[in-house]
Amino acid sequence: MNNLENITPGHQTEMMVIDVWSDIVCPFCYIGKRNLENALQQTGLSELVKVVWHSFELAPDAQTNPGATIYEELGKRKGWSPEQSKQIHKQMEQRAKESGLEFDFDQTVPANSFKAHRLLHLAKKHGVQDDVKESLLKGYFTDGKNIDDNAWLVETGKQFGLSDQEVYLALQSDDIEKEVREDIESARKLSIQGVPFFILNQKYALSGAQPVKVFVEALEKVKEEIGIQPLNSDDPAFCGPGWNC
User: Fold this and answer.
1) Residue 97: which CATH number?
2) What's the pTM value of the predicted model, to 2 decimals?
């Protein structure tokens, strides 16, 4: 789905809610997050919008391997040569720069993202989900952090007021695991095939790392609550299962 669609009846709210399905290891998810934030700033809606992050796993079977490079891991998964894998990742780094982000795939640690999603669900309960989401994405794409490492996840949580014990418990909690899997199941029920995927005010859907101008137009239309026509984009950038970006 590459455009904005009316998916279910909505209702007038004082604060717009944007539900986003994404994965920590999805480059387009970070780019989409930044483009949305830039659009919110341009429209003056930053303080009037609540963004809720939902879990999605691009590669549930991914193994954490700090001894490997992301070029090797994705090369094996997708059948790329080492040279081809590096070239594709360097192109993505350039794409990120266009949104004001600095990706450094030379440092990226191949990792399973499920524990990171656990931390995001804990962060949501404490009202710091957006901050933690940013730290997880930056850690993975820029700083070479292992997002599957308990110690680093605890330190990340502590930055935003979460205690060691709370984070350690969340990383093992059956209840938190259930919440993550419910998010993943809700994506399946909504026929979400790739991420990022945005639902505005429970009514309208945008898929992919849309350009800022598309987010701006969508936000303005939702804000005004007028009839919304499909918004086409020449940049339907998203990641599908198996890191199919």
Assistant:
1) 3.40.30.10
2) 0.88
